[in-house]
Amino acid sequence: MKPVAFDYERPASLEDAIALLSGAGARVLAGGQSLGPMLNLRLAQPELLVDITYIPELKTAERQGDGLWLGACVTHAEIEDGAVPDVTNGALAFVAGGIAYRAVRNRGTVGGSLAHADPAADWVTCLSALGADAVIAGPSGERRVPVSEFLSGAFETALEVGEILRGVWIPTLSSAASWGYYKFCRKAGDFAEAIGAVLQDPERGIVRTVLGATNARPIVIDGAYGDESVRASIDSQGGDMDAYDRQVHFVTAKRAAMIAGVRVA
Ligand SMILES: Cc1cc2nc3c(=O)[nH]c(=O)nc-3n(C[C@H](O)[C@H](O)[C@H](O)COP(=O)(O)OP(=O)(O)OC[C@H]3O[C@@H](n4cnc5c(N)ncnc54)[C@H](O)[C@@H]3O)c2cc1C
Asked: Would you identify the CATH topology of the domain 7-51?
């Protein structure tokens, strides 16, 4: 199948992109790795595609305050290749390298991944564990939402009509920080059946466990890792997970904790 006919615009500034998105039937195009198939299957039938990948500020990656600013259109491959400053002791590059395969990583973007809001995608879980904020721009200005709250459900986000995810801000880890990321999938590069992400940053007093590839937004557990608290969180927030899913998520989180060097009980 082929897409329905649509118009295409390539704005050079964020302001122009936001203005174009105010029209009915307009939709953002980033790397096209998820939107492309949706267009071809006619699951998406926009009247106008607004290609944001030529907006310079959305391609920037730089240290900002005590953290890293990552524009929405930075690609997975750029992160994998170390083209962005490393404030996470290697976590971002490691996670990027496990996304799909190189052709997808060359075009797929951080912003597109978050905005597409597939609960099984990697960035939403990784960035929730790192305590990142999503920065959203729209006709009425800019606002910040923790990435852990950016998904309102599967394939649903905090973005309002006409808004663009401008980028993410990621706090710098201390040199003593350790992390573990464990992705359970059938073969390398697949979407995950379960993801565990654990961050331990003693200098900032943070221990955080995140369970991803749930049926909705990731499950975030702040405080010391404990088998019982992980199981209790899966029971209370795991939605309609069956017994197999619950066990896979539990084991995945535990492996991430062991990789992070967190004491597991
Ligand atoms: C074969 C295959 C395997 C994959 N495997 C994995 C995997 O293992 N792990 C993983 O995490 N991902 C995986 N992906 C997803 C991929 O990593 C892309 O990140 C993802 O498809 C979307 O990014 P994109 O830049 O291509 O966005 P697009 O496809 O261009 O857009 C996706 C959606 O987000 C919207 N959008 C895009 N950017 C913005 C923005 N800045 N503001 C507001 N809305 C926006 C679009 O309107 C659209 O609705 C896979 C994809 C494919 C095709």
From this structure: 3.30.43
Q: Are 198 and 179 in contact (CB under 8 A)?
A: yes
User: In the chain, where does the domain assigned CATH 3.30.465.10 lie?
Assistant: 56-171
> According to the model, what pLDDT value does residue 265 have?
65
State the pairing for strand pair 156-157/164-171.
Answer: unpaired
Residues of the chain with CATH 3.30.43.10: 7-51
Q: How confident is the model at residue 167 (pLDDT cuts 50, 70, 90)?
A: very high
Q: What is the predicted pLDDT for the residue at 258?
A: 96
Ligand 1 nearest atom to the CA of residue 189, by list position: 8
For domain 56-171, is the CATH number 3.30.465.10?
Answer: yes
Ligand 1 centroid distance, CA of 33 (Å): 5
pLDDT at residue number 186: 87
Level-2 CATH architecture, domain 178-260: 2-Layer Sandwich (3.30)
Residues with CB under 6 A from ligand 1: 27-35, 52, 72, 76, 99-100, 104, 107-109, 111-113, 115-116, 121-123, 159, 164-165, 189-191
Distant-in-sequence, close-in-space partners of 214: CB < 8 Å, separation ≥ 6: 119, 237, 238, 239, 241, 249
